[in-house]
Amino acid sequence: MDTKRIKQIVSSPKEIEVTYNGVSVWIDQIHENGELATVHLRRSLEERSEVNIAELKEEIR
């Protein structure tokens, strides 16, 4: 996924499903370098990870 689309998802009032390695995640923050984002599992607010945005996928229903 690209940085522009991630910014749209983060600022959207709609709930848009995003996955990382097949697991549903929330995007918490996009890093200034535009390559990494901080995400957490939808079911666990405590476990946060920094991931490459290219590995995030928008799930279209």
Automatic annotation (TrEMBL):
<comment type="similarity">
    <text>Belongs to the SspH family.</text>
</comment>
<keyword id="KW-0749">Sporulation</keyword>
<protein>
    <submittedName>
        <fullName>H-type small acid-soluble spore protein</fullName>
    </submittedName>
</protein>
<dbReference type="Pfam" id="PF08141">
    <property type="entry name" value="SspH"/>
</dbReference>
<dbReference type="GO" id="GO:0042601">
    <property type="term" value="C:endospore-forming forespore"/>
</dbReference>
<dbReference type="InterPro" id="IPR012610">
    <property type="entry name" value="SASP_SspH"/>
</dbReference>
<dbReference type="GO" id="GO:0030435">
    <property type="term" value="P:sporulation resulting in formation of a cellular spore"/>
</dbReference>
<dbReference type="GO" id="GO:0030436">
    <property type="term" value="P:asexual sporulation"/>
</dbReference>
